[in-house]
Design brief:
The complex is a heterotrimer of chains A (118), B (84) and C (230). Chain A has 118 residues and is mainly alpha-helical. Helices cover 68% and strands 0% of the residues of chain A. With 84 residues, chain B is mainly α. Chain B has a domain of 50 residues. Chain B has 3 helices and no strands. Chain C is an all-alpha fold and 230 residues long. Chain C has one domain. In chain C, 67% of the residues lie in helices and 0% in strands. Chain C is built from 8 helices and no strands. The radius of gyration of chain C is 22 Å and the shape is globular. Classes of the chains: A mainly alpha (118), B mainly alpha (84), C mainly alpha (230). Chains in contact: A-B, A-C, B-C. At the A-C interface, helix 1 and helix 4 of A face helix 1, helix 2, helix 3, helix 4 and helix 8 of C.
């Protein structure tokens, strides 16, 4: 199960990269980046998963003493929690700049942004 | 129930890959944005199966909720442009 | 066409790397050292039932402070970039439906309540400051959808954000003087594992993070919503 999820995560990263490299519309490129982002998160969470164990939350079924035998690795989850939140911040920043570029050029086609071409 | 989980995982993974391809190659930008939101939403269910409820909640609220709306705010502003 | 070929070649390289990683992966059967430390010590040391929360708020609390700072910077830059794009006079908009207006009035308090519930219970159940903050921002989003002309007071959002950040750092410093180190949660009694008022300062700190994150997301949404239609 974790293996399948990890393969899907890698596939999503590849799909996202492909979209970011081949799309010419800025908004579509940002969409592709969010998909690659989701793929990375799935891979990290899948690495922390262990068969037959449960979430790292102590309650009546998982006592503090038995925790080491019963829970999965909590560190990747804490990492991904951070990554998702920062991901939204980065996406919002990219969208704000895309809007600004549209305001200047009235287009989202990156082939029309030629100022930096030598 | 537990013997169904691998099949459910396979279904979710397949859905995610198809939705991601729609988001990358599809013709219309609004549908691409919605497909990316769907990838996030399905990913949050996958996180729940991978025993990570904290991550699942974050992905559902932030990844599929707020991100999609941010995209639509900007898309609504550049509506008359040459996207497509 | 050449560009697409280069992209495909690059993807093939990445695909080969990922395939190697995937084929060489063997799942652990035991927790590694770090995870074992957190699993064994969290309940006794910090009194938090949710170990992910304990890592985010206390063990790696400094990183979380950095994270909300990055988020604050992102929100500030979004506001700065879009500052010149605000329309001078009010736009003409068709009024939204009665259903949405009434529904908003009914739903917004409940969504806010859910957000507060999620971050106050962050140390017991899945959820916490980031999720609760996102839920609070979604209430702001609903208000923006119901009345696109509404102008949120950026001063109010900034005040909530700064006050939450200030108290967060103050609590961290209190940990430095009263307990083991910066952001140590043992400045308040640990209580019993699994009760609402337990785990020392973790619920307080996570609530402050929730307010701060909610204010930051709201500010991003409001900045983008107030831009001019092009």
């Amino acid at each position: 199960m974790a293996y399948l999820a990890m393969a899907t995560g890698f596939l999503l990263i590849l799909i996202g990269f492909y979209g970011a490299l081949t799309n010419r519309n800025l908004l579509r490129m940002i969409v592709a980046f969010t998909i690659a982002d989701t793929g990375v998160n799935i891979v990290i969470v899948a690495i922390g998963y262990m068969r037959g164990r449960t979430a790292p939350i102590l309650d009546s079924t998982v006592s503090a003493a038995a925790a080491v035998q019963r829970i999965i690795d909590p560190v990747p989850q804490a990492l991904v929690l951070t990554a998702i939140v920062i991901g939204l911040g980065v996406t919002a920043l990219m969208l704000a700049y895309a809007y600004k570029l549209y305001e200047k050029k009235r287009t989202l086609d990156i082939a029309r942004f030629t100022e930096l071409k030598g | 129930m537990s013997h169904l989980l691998p099949w459910l995982t396979a279904l979710l993974c397949f859905t995610m890959v198809v939705a991601a391809l729609v988001a990358i190659r599809g013709k219309s930008t609004p549908i691409a944005i919605l497909a990316a939101g769907l990838v996030s939403l399905v990913a949050s269910v996958l996180f729940l199966i991978l025993a990570s409820p904290d991550v699942a909640m974050t992905e559902a609220a932030i990844g599929s909720g707020l991100t999609t709306f941010l995209f639509f705010f900007v898309l609504g502003r550049v509506r008359r442009g040459d996207h497509g | 066409m050449v560009k697409r070929l280069i992209a495909l070649a690059l993807l093939a390289v990445f695909g080969a790397v990922f395939a190697t990683l995937l084929l060489g992966y063997t799942p652990d059967s035991e927790l590694n050292l770090t995870a074992r430390y957190y699993a064994e010590r969290t309940a006794a040391e910090l009194g938090a039932a949710n170990i992910v929360t304990a890592i985010v708020v206390t063990y790696r609390g400094l990183d979380t402070l950095g994270e909300v700072t990055v988020l604050f910077l992102a929100a500030a830059i979004v506001g700065l970039v879009l500052a010149n794009s605000r329309p001078g006079q009010a736009r003409e908009r068709a009024p939204v439906g009665e259903l949405l207006t009434t529904g908003t009035r009914f739903l917004v308090p409940m969504i806010l309540l859910l957000g507060v519930y999620v971050f106050v219970n962050g140390h017991l159940t899945p959820g916490g400051g980031f999720q609760g903050g996102a839920i609070i921002a979604s209430a702001v989003l609903l208000m923006l959808l119901a009345n696109p002309l509404r102008h949120f007071s950026h001063n109010l959002i900034a005040a909530i954000e700064s006050l939450a950040g200030l108290f967060y750092v103050t609590l961290g410093l209190a940990g430095l003087f009263l307990a083991g180190g910066f952001l140590d949660n043992r400045i308040l009694p640990l209580g019993n594992l699994g009760e609402l008022i337990s785990a020392g300062a973790i619920p307080v700190i996570y609530s402050l993070i929730g307010l701060k994150v909610g204010a930051e997301f709201s500010s991003m949404l409001a900045s983008l919503a107030e831009t001019e239609e092009l």
